[in-house]
Structures are given as C-alpha cells and as structure tokens.
Amino acid sequence: MDLTYKRKNVFQEADKKEMKAIMDYAEGYKKFLDNGKTEREAVYETIELAKKNGYKEYTLGSKIKKGDKLFYNNRGKSLFLIKAGSADIAENGIRIMVAHVDSPRLDLKQVPMFEKAGIAYLKTHYYGGIKKYQWLTIPVALHGVVILKDGSKVTIKVGEDEKDPVFYISDLLPHLSQDISEKKVSQAFEAENLNIVIGGIPSGNDEKNAVKKGVLEILNKKYGISEEDFLSAEIEAVPAYKAKDVGFDRSFIASYGHDDRVCAYPEITATLETETDQTVLTVLADKEEIGSEGNSGMQCILIQDIIDMIASSYGVSPALVRASSKCLSADVTAAFDPNYPAAFEPQDGSYDGNMSRAGQGVAMNKFTGSRGKSGSNDASAEFVGYLRKIFAEENVIWQTGELGKVDLGGGGTVAKYLARYNIDTVDLGVPVLSMHAPYELISKADVYSAHKAFSAFIK
Length: 459
What we know:
- The protein is α/β, with parallel strands linked by helices.
- The protein has helices spanning 10-13, 16-35, 39-52, 89-92, 178-181, 185-188, 210-223, 258-273, 302-314, 318-324, 381-393, 415-419, 444-458, and strands at residues 56-57, 69-74, 78-83, 94-100, 105-116, 119-127, 140-147, 153-158, 196-199, 233-239, 244-246, 252-255, 279-285, 326-329, 333-334, 362-365, 369-370, 398-400, 410-411, 424-429, 431-432, 440-443.
- The protein has 13 helices and 22 strands.
- The strands form five sheets. It has a nine-stranded mixed sheet with strand order 1-2-3-13-4-14-20-16-18, sandwiched between helices. Strands 8-7-10-5-6-9 form a six-stranded antiparallel sheet. Strands 11-12-22 form a three-stranded antiparallel sheet.
C-alpha cells in the first residue's frame, strides 16, 4: 500500500471518451471567451445561456418557490443564478459558487480625446494589476456603452470583426530607447503614456484638432456621439485577440480574460446542466480586480439580500441558512511556470511541492493573502475534508496551490467577503500561466476538471 501523495495528470487519466469530452468542452469555453470580453458582455452571454435552459428573470423581493430557475441581473455588470431546490435549506443551506467576470484592462478616461502632432488619441486609466509594457504594440478593441444626452444607451464594439479597424498603443523604437532600457520596468513605462491611436486624417483645412474633429464626425455619424457624451460612458480597451488553441496537440488555450472567466464558465455549465435537490446560488461578480468594491462587487450587501430572500421564501431563518451553506470562491491561481522557477516554492525529484501545475486539475487554495496569510480567508480542515470526499466520489482530479513563494508576493480573492457571512468558503479555480497578461494560457484539462468539481459540489 503506497501511503505517499502523488498528483495525477488529467490527460493521462482520461480514456478516449473523456478526452473527447475535454476537447469538446473547450470549444464552448472559447466561444464564451470571444463573446464575453467585458463584464457586461459576459453577463449577457450568460443570460442567453440561462434562458435557453429555462431560467426566468427574477424581480428583487419576489417570492422564490421550490423548482424555480431564476436569474437576477444587477445593473448589467453582475449576475445571480438561482436554482431553488427541494432539499431542506435549514439543514443543507445553499450551495454557493462565485466567480468574477471583470479582467485587467484599460478604461477610457471621462474626457479621453486629444490630438498631438497630427494623431488623434484616447487617454486611458488602467484597471487592475497589469504590466504596462505588455499593452504596447498589440491590437486592441473598444467595448462598452455610452449614455447619450437624451438618456439613450449606445453599445460600442469595434475591433473584433475581421472587417473592423483595431487600435494601438505605440512604443519607442530600440534605436532610441537606451534611457528607457536602463530604468526599472516599474519606472520605464508610465501610465499616462498608454494613449490609444484612433485616427490620422484631418477634417477640413483647420489645422487645430482637425484629426480629432474627423474622428468625432465618424463617431457622430455611426453612433450619434458627441465629445461630451464620453462623460457618461464606460468604454474598455481589451486585446483584439481571439481565443486560440496552443500546441501541436492543442492541449492549451491562449486568450484574454481567463482570469476569471475560466472559472465563471464551468460554474455556469455546472449550474445549468447538473441535476440536484440542493438550492444553488451562482454569482458572476464584477470589480474583483480592484478590490470587489461598488454595488456590482462582492463587498456589496446584495449577496446577503438574495440569501435572505431565499430563506424568507422557504420560511427559514437567514442566519441558519448562512451557517449551513457552503461556498466555492472560484478564482484562478498561479500555475507553476518552468521558465521562471525562482518565483515558486522550490521543488525537486523527491518533493512535488505546493504549486499548481497545468494539466493536473482544478486547484484548491486553502489560503491566499500575502506573506503571513494577510488578507486571507484560510478555509477550515473540515471543509477541505468535505470537498476531498465528494471529489473522490465523483472522480474529480484536483490539486493544491499557492500564489508563489511565501515572502515574494501573493494575492486576494472574494473568499473573505463570503466567509464574513458565516459561510464555509474555500478558493477553487484553474491554474493560469501569464496571469493578468493580455493573452493568458490555461490547460483544457483544468477547465474541464473545474466543471466536474463544481458539478460534484452542487449535487
């Protein structure tokens, strides 16, 4: 009897039927990525999937009946899927899964347009943790909404269709960048220089702001937009890349927005497809990349309001429901990168380590935070043991993970915001290579493993 702990590789364990299931599942995920590059788009893409599966829109405060399948759209930026089960929620609570659908990006400033040296630009303010240099010289698309003076809403999406133009942030040529090359990376690239090129043809003979005027004429003709309308707009610049298979064996997917849509999509599919007697609450949250603030982030009291409404509909104390509930904070973790081993816990042939590895299944981070677990939820041994048992019963391949060396850095998730409601919570998500880059990398095996894990959790 072998008493040692050994990780498994999902691909190696899969038979021919499951290998096909992994590859087929990845196709649906890639479509979701391409159709939902912003939190708004991901929400509406999910609503369409939910409607096809019999979900109806929920009005806040309405009574929820056993058997109901509902969605609550919070301002178009976060979403709650409610599956009202027949099991006793006083005893079993609610199975809660939370992922976020916002990703690091560049947001347009409120007064973004300017012209300099015959080129029209948009000024940006980056959102979330990015390496600024990674956004230079790549094609970007513009997605978002503009609220016009009359209150009507205009949707913007330019740069995704093959016939669309794309947009661009320039970099200084190596022949002239010696001074920049000698600076620290954190100092070499300034946020105020992340200006997006949007035009170069002057309108008329007026030399001052003639290019900017020409761009405004195009925007006004197509969308009815004037410059003042940017004051009430939310427009995001995202990479104009499609999700693509990587490797001769097509084992990986490269895409913008794996963090955290690679966890959101398995949550969605598990919720819509899994038969269960449990009451399930699946949340697609906004604002995680900037601390889960605002009324669409997980620090908003709305999550408690909805749990209270479910409890009230069932005639059960909300406090009792929360105490009996269980939650998976579905967020990505750092995959071990063999090109940068110094950033991770030392490993050798005799020690497999605590770092998540691509292809070895969905990863559980018992704790996150930084250095001395600061800002972490740190789940209980009992809850981890509960999940171990159900994953074993459902043949879910999973692994443990951390966010790099103890004293090097770390990160946070929404887990602590759920735990504050007296709900057992742990982080479970897909390992990602090049996290927060404009084009991240994940293994198809791991996103499929996440789907199996979430399905097992809500059964």
